[in-house]
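Researcher: Before we compare anything, I want clean individual predictions. No alignment, no superposition, just each chain on its own. First chain goes here; please echo the sequence and then give the structure tokens.
Model: Echoing the first chain and its structure:
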Amino acid sequence: MSTSKKGDGGAPPAAVSASGLRKSYGDKVVLDGIDLYIPAGSIFALLGPNGAGKTTTVQILSTLISADAGQIQVAGHDLAVDAQKVRAAIGVTGQFSAVDGLITGEENMLLMADLHHLPKAEGRRVAAELLERFDLTEAAKKPASTYSGGMKRRLDIAMTLVGSPRIIFLDEPTTGLDPRSRHTMWGIIRELVRDGVTVLLTTQYLEEADQLADRIAVLHDGKIAAEGTADELKRIVPGGHIRLRFTDPDAYRAAVSALQVATRDDDALTLQIPSDGSQRELRSVLDWLDSVGIEADELTVHTPDLDDVFFALTGGTDDKTKETVR
């Protein structure tokens, strides 16, 4: 299921669009006709477990491999006709670091500047600015092999930015990072988008997609199982509810009598009312409690999270599976 529309009603221009994208390796179908529409200046997340087709999608969009079928436009260029122009407009940070550990961070940056054919003086200026921006100036003269995982990832993205790309593909950029480094990387990604860059992010981390993405597509078995904002995706999964807890048994019994749709727990003196978690529904429950003169001691709202969405869409149910995709 895909909810995106192309160019409807003054929608922002597409940085990336693809329709009918297919890719197989022998009998193994990796992508089975997916559609993508990524507005310029946004963060779009492809979410899915290992083998879902995330990396294959990035490799096709970044011209590293060819699709078997499908129409693709990146930065306004038809990938089948203007692959070179597409390459000039994009930056790619893959799952595995492109950093050369045998040379310094600065030398890695200058090497990228040479690959982009920047004049020597401009290359040094750009390298210095990016090293400072990514808090790598003090380590710039040290071999990259001495960098921590988070520092290498920051250097990776700094190298990607040497050519000033307007579209960046980040393939699982925080895999293997500790929580502090992951949050640092999130800040860097948000800053890129504030500067007008479009980011296509692939991730196995549900929280990462929830925190960063304007829109999320869930890949499963080579297809897009669902697409939307994080809130829209959470609403497609049942299970949201408002929980009322009472300490006064009489108040609890009065609420049970009045609320026929609620699920009751007589031992805990709690009621659960089905809810989509919206402000409107919460207000209606509060208004109803006031109107009947019942006062709950505690009211909490529970809404499905992306974990629930992911497992509902991909069929994962057990704890072992959950550990794998986090």
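Researcher: Okay. Second chain, same rules.
Model: Second chain and its structure:
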Amino acid sequence: MCNLYRMTKATAEVANLFNAKLGSVGNFATEVYPGYPGLVVAGGELRSMVWGFPLVLKGKNGQPLKPKPVNNARADKLDGLMWRYSFAERRCLIPVSAFAEAEGEKGAKTRTWFTLLDQEVFAVAGLWRDAPEWGPAYTMVMTEACQHVADVHDRMPVILKREDWADWLDGAPDDAGLLCRPYPELMVAERTGESWVRR
């Protein structure tokens, strides 16, 4: 599952690429982690939202704990209660320059970054909703890994080709569901010595 990605382009450039109005983008980091803001395209607008739908857990005494961001939605679980209405009514595009997966032995995992050979920014399928805890929040849709990712992780984000963006955003749920498949073209893996966990 994806718990880290990069978005390195300027917001105006991204809005132009996605033919979207530049909305309220606020501050966001180049590297995006769950629970922090990232950019999404929704309703024809590029805007920032928190990465992860809030899941409120309860402590031993029944008191609610700090919400946990659920930042990945499995494509085969989109009919579940947490995702169903967002999948039917609130799909979005997540602009991404690269996504990372952890690779290596436990306690010594490093970052392996995946990019597309011919695109500096690509679109990942997302869902969004207004959350009382955080305001607008989004999650990435995940599917089975393609051959370029499978030796690192068994799942990957749903990467959408440009010609499929409109169908993901506005098509019927059944048609959008057919787009949740492993990316069929070449991807580049960059293995690094960067520790997965930054101390």
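Researcher: What stands out in the second chain?
Model: The chain has a mean pLDDT of 93. Additionally, The domain at 5-102+120-145+155-182 is CATH 3.90.1680.10 (hypothetical protein yedk fold).
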